C-alpha cells in the first residue's frame, strides 16, 4: 500500500472512531457501552500481548492485575474505607475521592509490582507449567478479594464495592452528561473517548516496544530462549520486565473498569475472563498489534451481537434452551471455526509466520 493510501486509510479510520459513539448513541446507550467495553478489552489484550505475544510467556492469570487495579481505585474512590474505618473517616470527612492523576500511576505501579512478584518465582518455568502457576495466581487473587471481608473488612467480600466515583479531570466529570452547543454527550460517550485515548497511547507504547532492543530481545526469547541466552541476552530480567509491563496495562484497565461500572465484585474477575483475554490475543494473531486489536473487538462485541441471535433460536426450541447457554455455544462454534480456517489467527504477524514456516520446513 502506498504512503498516500495509508494516510487516507488512517484519516478515515480516525474520523470513523471519533463519530462512532455519536452514531451509536442514536440507537441507545447500550451500544455505546458495548463499544466502551470493547476498548477496555483491547487495552487488556494489548497488555497481555506483551507477555504472550512478544515474550512468549503463557499467562492465564492476567485478570488478577485487572482486579488489582479495579479494587485499588474502588478503595480510593468510594465510601467503603471511610465507613469501615473511623480514623480514615475522620481524616477525610468529605470521603476519599482520588484524582485521576494519582489513580492511574498508582494502579500501574501496584499492578506492575504484582507482575514482578508473579514473574520472579516462575522464571524457570515454561509452557504448560508456567500456565498452571499463573492460573493459580489469578485464582488466589480472586479468592483473597472474595474473603478479605473478615476479620477486617477490606474488600467487602462477595458483596463487592459500590458507589465508586466516576473519573473527573479539568473539572469534567465523566459520570455526567456534557452539553456542547446544545448537543448532549452522555457519560458512556465521554468514557468512550477516554478509553480510545488510552488505547491509542497503549498502541503507541506497544509499537515502540516492539521495534526497540527490548522488544527484539523478547521475541528472541519467544523463538528460542536457549539461543537468546547464548547470545548474551539477560533472559531473567527481560522476562520480569515483560510481566511487569504487561501487568501495568491490566492495572490501568481495572481502574477504568471500576470507574465506568461504579461497582466491582470478585465475580467480575473470574478465570473465564483470563481465558477470554488470552483467546483475544490468540484469535487475532499473537504478537501482531492489528490482529490483537481485531481479536479483542470481535470477542468482546460478539457475545452482545449474538444475544440478538440467541433469542430467536431459543424461541425455535420452545424455550427449552437457555439463551445464555446458546450464546456461549455460538461463541465457541465461531471461535473453533475461525481457528480451523485461520490457525495462526485472523491477522497474524508476517514475521512470526515466516519463522514458523521456516521451522516447519527445517523439520
TrEMBL record:
<keyword id="KW-0812">Transmembrane</keyword>
<feature type="transmembrane region" description="Helical">
    <location>
        <begin position="98"/>
        <end position="120"/>
    </location>
</feature>
<dbReference type="InterPro" id="IPR001851">
    <property type="entry name" value="ABC_transp_permease"/>
</dbReference>
<feature type="transmembrane region" description="Helical">
    <location>
        <begin position="127"/>
        <end position="145"/>
    </location>
</feature>
<feature type="transmembrane region" description="Helical">
    <location>
        <begin position="7"/>
        <end position="24"/>
    </location>
</feature>
<feature type="transmembrane region" description="Helical">
    <location>
        <begin position="30"/>
        <end position="52"/>
    </location>
</feature>
<keyword id="KW-1133">Transmembrane helix</keyword>
<feature type="transmembrane region" description="Helical">
    <location>
        <begin position="276"/>
        <end position="303"/>
    </location>
</feature>
<dbReference type="GO" id="GO:0005886">
    <property type="term" value="C:plasma membrane"/>
</dbReference>
<feature type="transmembrane region" description="Helical">
    <location>
        <begin position="190"/>
        <end position="209"/>
    </location>
</feature>
<keyword id="KW-0472">Membrane</keyword>
<dbReference type="Pfam" id="PF02653">
    <property type="entry name" value="BPD_transp_2"/>
</dbReference>
<dbReference type="GO" id="GO:0015658">
    <property type="term" value="F:branched-chain amino acid transmembrane transporter activity"/>
</dbReference>
<feature type="transmembrane region" description="Helical">
    <location>
        <begin position="240"/>
        <end position="264"/>
    </location>
</feature>
<dbReference type="InterPro" id="IPR043428">
    <property type="entry name" value="LivM-like"/>
</dbReference>
<keyword id="KW-1003">Cell membrane</keyword>
<protein>
    <submittedName>
        <fullName>Inner-membrane translocator</fullName>
    </submittedName>
</protein>
<feature type="transmembrane region" description="Helical">
    <location>
        <begin position="59"/>
        <end position="78"/>
    </location>
</feature>
Amino acid at each position: 500500500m502506498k504512503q498516500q493510501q495509508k494516510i487516507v486509510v488512517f484519516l478515515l479510520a480516525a474520523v470513523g472512531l471519533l463519530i462512532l459513539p455519536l452514531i451509536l448513541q442514536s440507537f441507545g446507550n447500550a451500544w455505546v457501552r458495548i463499544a466502551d467495553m470493547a476498548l477496555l478489552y483491547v487495552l487488556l489484550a494489548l497488555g497481555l500481548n506483551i507477555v504472550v505475544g512478544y515474550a512468549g510467556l503463557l499467562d492465564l492469570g492476567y485478570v488478577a492485575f485487572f482486579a488489582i487495579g479495579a479494587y485499588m481505585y474502588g478503595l480510593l474512590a468510594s465510601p467503603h474505607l471511610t465507613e469501615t474505618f473511623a480514623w480514615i473517616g475522620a481524616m477525610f470527612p468529605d470521603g476519599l475521592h482520588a484524582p485521576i492523576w494519582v489513580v492511574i500511576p498508582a494502579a500501574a505501579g501496584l499492578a506492575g509490582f504484582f507482575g514482578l512478584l508473579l514473574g520472579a518465582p516462575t522464571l524457570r518455568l515454561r509452557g504448560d507449567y508456567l500456565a498452571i502457576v499463573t492460573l493459580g495466581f489469578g485464582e488466589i487473587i480472586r479468592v483473597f478479594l472474595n474473603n478479605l471481608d473478615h476479620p477486617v473488612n477490606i474488600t467487602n467480600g462477595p458483596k463487592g464495592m459500590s458507589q465508586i466515583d466516576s473519573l473527573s479531570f479539568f473539572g469534567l466529570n465523566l459520570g455526567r452528561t456534557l452539553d456542547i452547543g446544545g448537543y448532549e454527550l452522555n457519560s458512556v460517550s465521554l468514557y468512550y473517548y477516554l478509553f480510545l485515548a488510552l488505547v491509542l497511547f497503549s498502541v503507541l507504547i506497544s509499537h515502540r516496544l516492539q521495534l526497540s532492543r527490548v522488544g527484539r530481545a523478547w521475541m528472541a526469547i519467544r523463538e528460542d530462549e536457549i539461543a537468546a541466552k547464548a547470545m548474551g541476552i539477560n533472559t531473567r530480567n527481560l522476562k520480569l520486565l515483560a510481566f511487569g509491563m504487561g501487568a501495568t496495562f491490566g492495572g490501568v484497565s481495572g481502574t477504568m473498569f471500576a470507574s465506568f461500572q461504579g461497582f466491582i465484585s470478585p465475580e467480575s474477575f473470574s478465570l473465564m475472563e483470563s481465558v477470554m483475554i488470552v483467546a483475544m490475543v490468540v484469535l487475532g494473531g499473537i504478537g501482531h498489534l492489528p490482529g490483537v486489536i481485531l481479536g479483542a473487538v470481535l470477542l468482546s462485541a460478539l457475545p452482545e451481537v449474538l444475544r440478538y441471535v440467541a433469542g430467536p433460536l431459543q424461541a425455535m426450541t420452545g424455550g427449552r434452551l437457555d439463551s445464555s447457554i446458546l450464546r456461549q455455544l455460538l461463541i465457541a462454534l465461531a471461535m473453533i471455526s475461525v481457528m480451523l480456517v485461520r490457525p495462526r489467527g485472523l491477522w497474524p504477524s508476517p514475521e512470526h509466520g515466516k519463522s514458523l514456516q521456516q521451522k516447519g520446513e527445517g523439520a
